[in-house]
Amino acid sequence: MTSLDIREQFTIATGLRITEVFSPGQSMSALRALQNSLLRHFPQHAHVLPELDAAWREGSHDPEVIVHAWLLENEVENACGFLIFHTNLRRAMMLQHFVAMDKAMRSGLPFNWMHSLFDAALAVSEREAAVAGVRLLGSMGENDAQHMAGWRRIGYRLLDVDYHEPEHGKHWADYEELTYLTPAPMVRLTEYGSAVPLRDVATAAVSAYLLDHYLLEPDNPTVTRTLELARGLPD
Ligand SMILES: CC(C)(COP(=O)(O)OP(=O)(O)OC[C@H]1O[C@@H](n2cnc3c(N)ncnc32)[C@H](O)[C@@H]1OP(=O)(O)O)[C@@H](O)C(=O)NCCC(=O)NCCS
């Protein structure tokens, strides 16, 4: 199945259309709709807007990371939500970054629309990794612990690694002090990822976030401790 087939299947199941904002030749209006939606749902993450501009203009910030931004539109082609995720080929992991759906739309969608969305994103990520000769291990999200049950229903499990995310994301070095948030680190495994030890998936997942995405130093004590805990996880 191609990425287009996967996206079309999602549309059949949910009625939501996916526009891949970073595909070559995509209109700037799709980018602006995505940015408006991100600002509406995550006003505290306005620092992401220039990153989206750069990805739209120049492509990925890292040759081993494929960036995706899916703008979700309803039947009348109004933007109503989005999903931003990355396929990290170096670590064989998909990273989910932001997902949102306008409140007015939520109750009218099929109960499992978000599950279908993450199935589609993981399938696209797994497929593009395979094209690059990489077997994807799974996906990771830094989730709100309050909504753990919802993520579990989608197939995610919690990693017991005392996880810390830099409060200012990859811009941490611009601040006087490196401060952290403590989201719930959760992974969803592919079939291949379930066949390898969990410690390998966990190590790849936290490395993809902390080292590759946030660009923390490998000898940062928070990073070394998290990686130590990941490597020590039981199967
Ligand atoms: C996450 C989201 C797409 C799930 O959609 P849904 O399953 O149809 O949501 P529900 O209507 O069941 O959500 C009920 C409440 O729980 C919150 N919630 C539900 N699932 C959530 C999740 N996985 N993560 C964070 N919050 C969630 C919602 O924000 C909502 O709170 P609100 O009424 O104050 O906005 C949607 O709730 C949303 O867009 N939330 C705002 C953005 C967000 O927090 N995204 C997740 C972090 S990246």
Radius of gyration: 17 Å
* Portion in helices: 40-55%
CATH class of the largest domain: Alpha Beta
Structural class: alpha+beta
Distance between the termini: 32 Å
Concise structural overview:
By secondary structure, the protein is an alpha+beta fold. The protein has helices spanning 3-14, 28-41, 48-58, 103-106, 113-131, 148-153, 191-194, 198-213, 221-231; strands at residues 17-20, 65-73, 79-88, 93-101, 138-143, 157-158, 165-166, 180-181, 184-189.
Task: Give the helix/strand layout.
Elements: H1 3-14, E1 17-20, H2 28-41, H3 48-58, E2 65-73, E3 79-88, E4 93-101, H4 103-106, H5 113-131, E5 138-143, H6 148-153, E6 157-158, E7 165-166, E8 180-181, E9 184-189, H7 191-194, H8 198-213, H9 221-231
Parallel strand pairs: 4-5
Antiparallel strand pairs: 1-2, 2-3, 3-4, 5-9, 6-9, 7-8
Helix pairs in contact: 1-5, 2-3, 8-9
Bound molecules: coenzyme A.
The site of coenzyme A has 11 residues, from strand 4 and helix 4.
Give a description of the structure.
By secondary structure, the chain is an alpha+beta fold. The protein has 2 domains: 1-136, Aminopeptidase (3-Layer(aba) Sandwich), CATH 3.40.630; 143-235, no CATH class. The chain is 41% helix and 21% strand. The strands form 2 sheets. A 7-stranded mixed sheet has the order 1-2-3-4-5-9-6, sandwiched between helices. The protein has a two-stranded antiparallel sheet with strand order 7-8. A hairpin with a 5-residue loop joins strand 2 (65-73) and strand 3 (79-88). Helix 2 (28-41) runs antiparallel to helix 3 and helix 8 packs antiparallel against helix 9. The longest helix has 19 residues, at 113-131. The chain is globular and about 50 Å long. Coenzyme A is lined by residues 41, 98-101, 103, 106, 114, 144, 147, 150.
